[in-house]
Write the structure tokens for this entry.
Amino acid sequence: MGVSLCLPALGPERVLDDAVIELALRGGRFSGLDSGLFGAFRFASGDAQQNRELIERGVLLPWWSELELRIAFLRPLSALTHALDFACWPRSPRLMYAHSLVWLGLVIAVAARLHRRLERRYTWRAFAATLLFAVSPSFGPAVGWLSGRNTLIATFFGICAITAWVSGCRLRALCLFAAGLASGELALCALAYIACHTWMLDPRPARARIRSLLPVAFVTLLWRGLHFASGFGASGSGAYLDPLDDVSALLAAAPERLLSGLGAAVGPVSADLIFVGGRDQARASLVLAALLALTFGFAVRRAVHCEPLARFWALSALLALVPLCAAPPNDRGLLLVLLGVTPLVSRLVPGLSHLRPPRVLAALFVGWHALGAPAVLALRAGQFQKLGQRTAESTRIFDTIPELERRTVVVLNPPRDLFASYIQLERAARGAGVARHLYWLSSSSSAFSITRVAVDTLEVRRPGGYWAAPLERLYRRDGTSLRPVLDFAAFSAQILEKTELEGPSVVRFRFRVPLEHESLVFVAWHGDRYTLVAPPALGHTLRFERAALESLL
């Protein structure tokens, strides 16, 4: 059932980070990006010169990015599966998505095995837990986005490691856990289940239990050391936070990220929208997530109080959320959290528990997970295909620009940064021409205006600041290092006004040539696509309203 509901993922489109992976494995065209298995998930190296080259080409990074930004993930096993795709069926994205469906089936199978082993006295409860796990909407972006496959692979090895640990096969568990870490950081969530099982369900003396966890801690520290020594990790970003280098920022972001993850795991709150949406939308989603978390805790309180196994599932799921605080809220990262949440939901199913949960609350949560979640899963699985079609249609105007390789494209108002930062990458991945330079002045995540104040100068006024939306903090965490004047190949950006938290609010862009010069091409987002536009006349102002996220997805 889980695989069948994800069949809408089978399609011809590849989007966003998929282009980074393809260029890394098949030979890239941008000098700021790395190649090979270790470059497939490296988006910003931390090298100022390389990041500056990406900014100049309009690849991934906007002009206000931290020059020493590092967003790089060590996922060689996941990259190897993508290399297999390009070796065996390079021209068939549908087979690539089918490959991800295979991993989905494996994840559900090993989850069923773990649920049966721990819920051995209640066969139907184990079946219900696995069924609810299989139809979780979090599988939608994990399968429907090729770049999300690493979450499936890390989850597979993580569950296998937990099962081996529960079975007493400690060496096998260590090897499987190491394989999970080599697939993706999500495997760290398996530590919560291993530690909780050892402490709560292992009958041995405390000293023996603590001693048994030392090899797992060693593997984790070794992985962390390799991660750091190889130049992987995160720094300079307000979205990806290093647990050791960004302690204060991580502690400040943890409550919101824990709430968003818990709300998405137990109810219909999408963690993705909290990150990609606007500030008001994020606040409303967090309030709903908090209410759902409290209500769910009240609904399962009796089971948690009376059953040691229920306490194990509850505490493991909560602790599994902790490693996720280092990354921005996202649904596909919740798979190992759902491994513990769904057995708790199964205890709310009538007839599967000797306890009597509140009927209204039981109907609410069981109804969502059993009826609402499968429908949302099918929609989420096909969402990236629609996004890919939308992106391809919206950027067709670039194919009509003569001598694009010799020209500088200025995008005035992309609806979100993601709709501009991948244009060059996606064109390069399909063999199309790319612009010599591409810049975007400001996204329309909030309203702003552009005024021409000189023959070669545009002034952007954005009262809410450039970092008003959570997604915009991906590129820079600390505004104190942002210089008042930034020089680029095509223009210099002078920051005239800025807010303390939301970044620049008035920026003046002075180009090297008059705005009507043939080397410059101006593009604006109108309706649902980009169109060629003329620069505004001297003294005239263009006003852009906030682009609704719902219209983009």
The mean pLDDT is 90. Residues 36 and 446 are 38 Å apart (CA to CA).
